[in-house]
Design brief:
MutS, DNA mismatch repair protein, domain I, alpha/beta, 7-stranded mixed beta sheet, 27 strands, ATP-dependent DNA damage sensor activity, binds adenosine-5'-triphosphate, Nucleotidyltransferase, domain 5, 6-stranded mixed beta sheet
């Protein structure tokens, strides 16, 4: 049977043609007063928006699903669609339907995607909304060492960033900047997934967009420069390709007004403390494992302005390693702590400075409302006293901020002169432009307000002429202005009045005079609106020339806000000024965990602890202690104190002297980690391996229960081997190693810079009291059973476990274990000298063939394990 050809209505034909251009977007199709969605888009939209799904042309050949909402609700529904991860193409009517011949012309006016959003309901005030692009470069020395370019752009603020590096570095940046959308060239789809995982919202573009000459051209055209030298990025080939792709995507999504993207900033790898993705997550800087738990940023954010909030996140992502810059921030914080009055005065002004960075971007994109322009002016006015206050101080950094702040006098004056202070959000509401600004406007307005007097006079006159006392003049949408006469006076109505409507009790008439009056008033109102719109758009266009100075002010206020916030944080929580120097030692006296100390039940004090590490005497600390005793807290607080100090904040400690730290690594043993599908142990080993390959003299390494993802002896061996490696490594990185394997305490006998500490507990009869104090010395045995008891495990289980533990301890004393390790060493040493046995020949072969230069630590461990197994097999045989 021949297939029926579906008959398309002209509207659906138009719809299908537009939809075909945006196949991967949800198309909002404007029909009259509604935005409609059709077919699969309608099914999706109805689910996300919880709106009714109906059928169009039910029963006919062209039956299709339909769901829509009134056009004025776009700001309610659009954010929901975008937050649900949709790309939304907004298709509007491009001509006045009344004047259209045939079907109304329609076209997509904006493509809103998660990474390209300007709508306040989609954006978070204290977070950036980044669009990113990643470009995989040609391979350099090895496959794992490929250069990858990355670029981030927040179209709502105009910030545009560029960088490039190896996969690990780009991964760290992606973790820090957490883009809402990542652009990748189609052929690199799998490469991206394999390298960076599947957590990102990705969009795949044609490969030709990712070509360096096209990208360079796009950037040069945007910035209207001859080269990229001025930005200091010209040699970042992969980065440039990524940045070009980002700009290309903006034009593809119909974002053409981009003059607020005034520069591109390079993120330089060596200017900031390095933290990889595991560290960022383990330290719970922005996100915690438990969705609702408090994070570091929650605790330390005392900023007032949205720009300040966003900058604080940036500072946390990129702590400094430049001593002078760090000290400068500390100086300012100290200054504010010493002078609470000036701190309050400045903060009081910052309260009036709203999001000038996003406001000025809205000027560029012509999306700013009259009320927002007034807000911009008020914000700039608050900057005037801040400039004066900071310039007057004797603090150099503050003076510099004060000197750099732009007064924008002309801009403020012009806005003040043009707009009414109470200007509305929507210009159509009227009363936007000040009457003093335009004499025409003033006249027209007085005409429309004098109208009431005119009508009153007319009413009085007509009452007198007709002798009707209850006359009323009013207006409605149908008949315009009319005179209303109650039926009782009907006979007194003059001949020349024209009857328009009869009600139950009254009749409504119009007169020549009323009609004339109406035309005049309506004409005036229309004209007022037209003048207001024209003057307002002229104003917005004119403000465009102030984008750079306002952006500069925004950046300076953000800095000031962060520094004031640090002072307040320090004041509220007794943080002290850390001393940062060029040594390699870390000396923290009575340090606290900034987040946990805020979370403890009322009245329960946080027990502060000392931590000392250096590269000479105390490079590695083995911290033993039962579960829940506070080992992880000590590890994390040490890292957080260093981080806070180097981002410019004071720290939760009585005293801290910190040798500049350039890298912080933390690793948590498998059972603390969220399983990633892969063998968790393998994951743990891979993660640890990447530390061992990257350590430097200034690194701080925190290992939490590494090795517990496997059987006890494997775990101990691996923990032992890793510690040994760190100890023997020429960089001698400062390390804290938390473990419940008390067997590792034996290491101090062999390795001079390893020291044993434990988190003290008081053993009561059948219980443990956590003292949470870090004290010198190792632990004798594990305490897991006590914790099980506290957790409410049944008596029999506890009893039985105690018995088993005693037996095990008898049969595997730690001395025995150490002996075992030593015997193994001796065995191996012996065997290297007596290579006459065929097995040993084989082992010799294995070892000789190992290429130490390319061997990763994990591979080394595995090789060792293989050899050990061969030997044990032989022994058993
Ligand atoms: N110094 C401290 N003062 C007060 N309470 C603390 C302190 N350290 C830790 N705690 C409390 O003890 C809890 C457990 O601490 P933590 O997770 O550091 O223990 P742990 O020894 O690492 O345990 P596990 O081995 O199970 O990971 C914390 O959540 C906190 O509530």
């Amino acid at each position: 049977m021949a297939k029926k050809v579906k008959k398309e209505t002209p509207l659906m034909k138009q719809y299908n043609a537009i939809k075909a251009k945006y196949p991967d977007a949800l198309l909002l199709f404007r029909v009259g007063d509604f935005y409609e969605t059709f077919g699969q888009d309608a099914v999706k939209a109805s689910k996300i928006l919880d709106i009714i799904l109906t059928k169009r042309g039910a029963g006919s050949d062209s039956e299709t699903e339909l769901a829509g909402f009134p056009h004025h609700s776009i700001n309610t529904y659009l954010p929901k669609l975008v937050k649900a991860g949709c790309r939304v193409a907004i298709c509007d009517q491009l001509e006045d339907p009344k004047q259209a011949i045939g079907i109304v012309k329609r076209g997509v006016t904006e493509l809103v995607t998660p990474g390209v959003a300007l709508n306040d309901d989609i954006l978070h005030s204290k977070s950036n909304n980044f669009l990113a692009a990643v470009c995989f470069g040609a391979s350099t020395s090895s496959a794992t060492n490929k250069l990858i370019g990355v670029s981030f752009l927040d179209v709502s603020t105009g910030e545009f960033l560029i960088s490039q590096g190896n996969a690990e570095y780009v991964d760290k940046l992606l973790q820090n900047f957490r883009p809402s959308e990542v652009l990748i060239s189609k052929p690199k789809r799998n490469a991206f997934k394999d390298t960076f995982g599947t957590d990102f919202h990705t969009f795949y573009m044609e490969d030709w967009v990712f070509q360096d000459d096209y990208a360079t051209e796009t950037l040069l055209k945007h910035f209207q420069t001859k080269s990229l030298k001025g930005f200091g990025i010209e040699e970042l080939y992969e980065g440039i390709v990524a940045s070009g792709a980002v700009l290309h995507y903006l034009s593809e999504t119909q974002h053409h007004r981009l003059q607020h993207i005034t520069t591109i900033q390079r993120i330089t790898k060596n200017d900031h403390v390095w933290m990889d993705r595991f560290t960022i997550r383990n330290l719970e800087l922005y996100q915690s494992y438990n969705q609702n738990a408090v994070t570091l940023i929650d605790v330390i954010d005392r900023t007032i302005s949205p720009m300040g909030g966003r900058l604080l996140k940036r500072w946390l992502a990129l702590p400094l390693i430049d001593l002078d810059k760090i000290n400068q921030r500390h100086e300012v914080v100290q200054f504010f702590l010493d002078d609470a009055v000036i701190l309050k005065k400045i903060q009081n002004q910052i309260k009036y400075i709203n999001d000038i960075e996003r406001l000025i971007s809205k000027v560029a994109t012509v999306k700013i409302s009259p009320r927002e322009v007034v807000q911009l002016k008020n914000a700039l006015e608050a900057i005037v006293p801040i400039k004066a206050l900071t310039q007057k101080t004797d603090n150099k950094a503050l003076q510099h901020i004060g000197d750099s702040l732009e007064l924008c006098e002309e801009l403020r004056q012009r806005i003040k002169a043009t707009l009414n202070e109470e200007a509305p959000v929507n210009i159509l509401k009227g009363d936007t432009i000040s009457s003093n600004f335009s004499s025409e406007l003033k006249e027209l307005r007085s005409l429309s307000t004098s109208g009431k007097d005119y009508l009153d006079a007319m009413l009085q006159r007509e009452s007198e002429i007709t002798g009707i006392t209850s006359l009323k003049i009013a207006s409605n949408n149908v008949y315009g202005y009319y005179i209303e006469v109650r039926h009782s006076h009907r006979d007194k109505v003059p001949e020349h009045w024209i009857r328009k409507q009869t009600l139950v009790n009254a009749e409504r008439y119009i007169t020549e005079e009323l009609k004339e009056y109406e035309t005049k008033i309506l004409g005036a109102e229309e004209r007022i609106l037209a003048i207001e719109q024209q003057l307002f758009s002229e104003l917005v266009l004119w403000i465009g020339q102030f984008i750079k100075p306002v952006q500069k002010n925004s950046a300076l206020i953000a800095q000031l806000d962060c520094l004031c916030g640090f002072a307040q944080l320090a004041f509220e929580n007794r943080y002290t000024r850390p001393e940062i120097n060029e040594t390699f030692a870390l000396d923290i006296k009575n340090g606290r965990h900034p987040v946990i100390e805020k979370q403890l039940p009322l009245g329960e004090p946080y027990i502060a602890n000392d931590v000392y590490l250096d590269r000479e005497k105390q490079q590695i600390i083995m911290i033993t202690g039962p579960n829940m005793s506070g080992k992880s807290a000590i590890l994390r607080q040490t890292a957080l104190i260093v981080l806070l100090a180097q981002m410019g904040s004071f720290v939760p400690a009585e005293h801290a002297i910190i040798g500049l730290t350039d890298k912080i690594f933390t690793r948590v043993g498998a059972s603390d980690n969220i399983s990633m599908g892969e063998s968790t142990f393998m994951v743990e080993m891979n993660e640890t391996a990447s530390i061992l390959n990257n350590i430097s003299e200034r690194s701080l390494v925190l290992l939490d229960e590494i090795g517990r993802g496997t059987s006890t002896y494997d775990g101990i061996s691996i923990a032992w081997a890793i510690s040994e490696y760190l100890h023997e490594h020429p960089s001698k990185p400062k390390t804290l190693f938390a473990t419940h394997y008390h067997e590792l305490n034996e290491m101090t006998e062999t390795f001079v810079r390893i020291k044993n500490f434990n988190v003290s507990v008081k053993e009561l009869k059948n219980n443990v009291l956590f003292l949470r104090k870090l004290v010198e010395g190792g632990s004798q045995h594990s305490f897991g059973i006590h914790v099980a008891k506290m957790a409410g495990m049944p008596q029999q289980v506890i009893h039985r476990a105690n018995k088993i533990l005693k037996q095990l301890e008898k049969s595997h004393s730690s001395e025995e274990l150490t002996n075992k390790v030593r015997t193994l060493e001796n065995d191996m040493q012996l065997s290297f000298f007596n290579l006459d046995d065929p097995l040993l020949e084989q082992i010799k072969e294995e070892i000789v063939n190992i290429d130490i230069d390319v061997l990763t630590p994990v591979e080394a461990l595995m090789k060792l394990n293989e050899i050990k197994r061969m030997l044990l097999k032989k022994k058993r045989a």
